[in-house]
Amino acid sequence: MKAIPYLAAWLPQLLGWLLLCAFLLTGIATAAQAQTDTTLTKSVVGKRWIVETRDGSVIQGIFLGQTDGGIRLQTDSAGEILIPHTQIKSTQIIDDSRMHDGAYWFENPNATRYLFSPSAFSLKKGEAYYQNTYLVLNSFNIGITDNITMGGGFELISTFSGTPAFYLTPKATFEINNKWRAGGGLLYMNVIGVGEDFSGLGIGYGIVTYGNSDDNATLGMGYGFVDGELSSKPVITLSGMKRLSSRIGVVSENWLVPWDSYYGVFSYGIRFMGERLTVDLAFINNRDIAEAIPIGVPYVDFVIKFGK
């Protein structure tokens, strides 16, 4: 019981020491945070930023630093401006490679494929897209990892007719260096309800792509199979895309299919691009088609990208 008066006598001093330690620790943490913020701020000064405000405006400029009042940007049209922190919805540092003659080009939202055939670029983990072709072919693809994409789809009319056609399109790719990528995958198609003996058809393929996500060409080779029977000659594809501006590019996809001899099919078209959407308007042609339709058969698709 003698310890109680002793503890009571020391309690104010003990509380004082605890409060002092808490104050010092808070001060150290705040100073460390301030130093981290200062280091971070210094590391991005001079880089080009895109700032989206809460009212939907997008402002682009060179980051000059930040104050308690907001972010300072040096813009091309309005000079130095201050954007209040309370008005900022999001910020993004722009890679120098995305600037072309002073204009910002957003990332190509549809670099993983041409019209239908794939490139050796893959969706990042968590990214996905939905593709619709001719309003009846519906495709879905998702990035399982940064190098593995899983996809599939179905044809709408056959789904309602009672014999639904579906397909699977898994793909794996890898980077060789900053100019070359390679990969492989499978295009498998089948129809439900046509008979138990039919095992489907498809192509197992390998591809190599040269270039970047905006301008590239892809050579592909694969062996087709129908109901378990493998082709003795490969299917060959040569495709490419080139971005002409921030929102417009051209795309071409060309096939050599083994028949009695090789049968060629080529295509050419325009790709209209937004940050999350692309629309392809193209024509598919060869010697036989050109006899009836000189410019080729129209091809239309659109792709909506989700995720990162």
Category by helix and strand content: alpha+beta
Number of domains: 2
Beta-strand residue percentage: over 45%
**Overall mean pLDDT:** 85
**Strand-and-helix sequence, N→C?**
HEEEEEEEEEEHEEEEEEEEEEHE
Oligomer description: single chain
Q: Runs with pLDDT <50, length 5+?
A: 1-12, 17-40
Instruction: Give the CATH class of the largest domain.
Output: Mainly Beta
* SS field, number of helical segments: 3
Please tally the β strands and state the result. Answer: 21
CATH topology value of the largest domain: Porin
Describe the overall structure.
By secondary structure, the protein is α+β, with helices and mostly antiparallel strands. It folds into two domains: 46-104, Roll (SH3 type barrels); 128-306, Porin, CATH 2.40.160.40. It contains three helices and 21 strands. It has helices at residues 3-44, 156-161, 287-292, and strands spanning 48-53, 58-66, 70-75, 79-84, 88-93, 99-100, 103-104, 128-133, 137-143, 148-155, 165-168, 171-175, 180-191, 201-211, 216-226, 229-230, 235-243, 248-258, 262-273, 277-285, 297-306. The strands form three sheets. Strands 8, 9, 10, 11, 12, 13, 14, 15, 16, 17, 18, 19, 20 and 21 form a 14-stranded antiparallel beta sheet that branches. It has a five-stranded antiparallel beta sheet with strand order 4-3-2-1-5. The chain has a two-stranded antiparallel ribbon with strand order 6-7. A hairpin with a 4-residue loop joins strand 12 (171-175) and strand 13 (180-191).
